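Components:
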Amino acid sequence: MINRFIMALACLMLIIAASSCVHLKEYQKSRINDSEMALSNRKVEKNELNFESYREAASGANAGKTGGGCGCN
Amino acid sequence: MKKIFLSVVGFSLLCRLNTYSQIKPDSTVNKPALGLSAPADRHDSSAYNPRRLRIDEIDFVSSYYGQTGDHSTVTGDNPNFLGNGVFTNSVKVTDISNGLDLKLVWLNKALNKNTLSAGLGFDYHTAASQAYVSATGASKTTGTRIYPSLDWTAENAKNGSTFGIGTYYSGEYNYKSLGADAHFSVKTDNKMGEFSAKLQGYFDHVTLIYPSEFIPNTTTTTTGTTTVVTTASGSTISTSADGETIHHHANIPSSPRNTYSASFSYSQIINSRLQIMFLGDVVTQNGYLGLPFHRVFFSNGKDTIEKLPSSRFKLPVGFRANYFLGDNIILRAYYRYYADDWGIRSNTIGLEVPYKITPFFSISPFYRFYSQSASTYFAPFEAHSPTDEYYTSNYEYAKFDSQFFGIGFRVAPPNGVFGWQGLHEMEIRYGHYTQTTDLVSDVVSISLGFK
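Structure:
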């Protein structure tokens, strides 16, 4: 039930997002280009992502480890 | 009339500023902060060569990780492993990680940007459970890991697409890994979206260090006048009648583990405040996927080492959304759904809320919730049947929820951190992690960025 709700929410967000895209000029990207808005992981998070993949069965889809590279996962 | 007058004055001022900027001596273009070669004469702008190899950035990340818990995989989750009432299930771990990344950039003849990233990491850990690889609890509890990496990426200046290849190595006492990848990204025509793909392969070797009770005892054989002693590790010591001794050291055998993954992502700028990203990986593993020193106790009281299938297929998909709320607050949201063919399903939700106190200093509280179902092959101490085909008591594969929360600080002033121009960014982050399996850990990290 929770999974279905989350999937439905994700689909809804995708539809809203896809239907509301606008074209921005470079000078309109000041907020988008802010370093805190980066869609990548923070450099300081690197070892957090590692320990999470060691202690939990799931990994991947976070630009981190997907398996391999150590004896723990 | 007044508007016309002010416009003329403003235009005049702009022109005068431009005039000044042209006659002012150039003091910046020939000032590479961390160039490999000596800077050219600062007044001679004709010597400036933008294609020259230079160090773009150096990043240093250091972390301390401390953990406590009471479900040891090495003892098969048996709290009285020694049989004398001494608690043997502690999974106390400390780990100190240090990583250095060096990024070199240059332009080729077509003025495409090339980036070479070289990384080197070093970890030192202590793990209480490691002591019980030996049935007496006498095994070494410390270890180190070293992991260098190299990546080259070329960016097409015309369309913004990138292509790169990388390689990676990790070495620790009982595990060796060699990895390689190729990655590619391309932007949409209006530069508002970007698609990325990465193909990775890890070729690992697990050293087969078994619990001491499963290793054959030392044997002694006599051939003629020569006595040969074969130790548990396979090494031999031959002693002849005249007292001459020959040592032959045998390497502990290892078993391969291969991981192949394809990672895809698509990011899209929705408007001036919102951007999103979809992520997905397809991962397949084969080979020896357990660890040889993980014990399992069956319901009949007998023990063995864990046995897991020789292949695993993982499918994680994720979604990120970053939203700039007002002028100071940013919402960084993340969701991931994960499924694999070992019966595990999991959901991960994360939210981080950076608050910009000034444009160069921000505080970021964060919270992450994770929930997973148990693997088909997991059962706790003495719950597995001896007739099970596969079995493990590793709590990584148990059903549990976890929470991770903490706070981060980021400083990136234009004149450098602590006034040091070379140190352009510093991040400090602390997090507290709890699992419903009673595992608790704390992690504190610092990241320094030099330019």
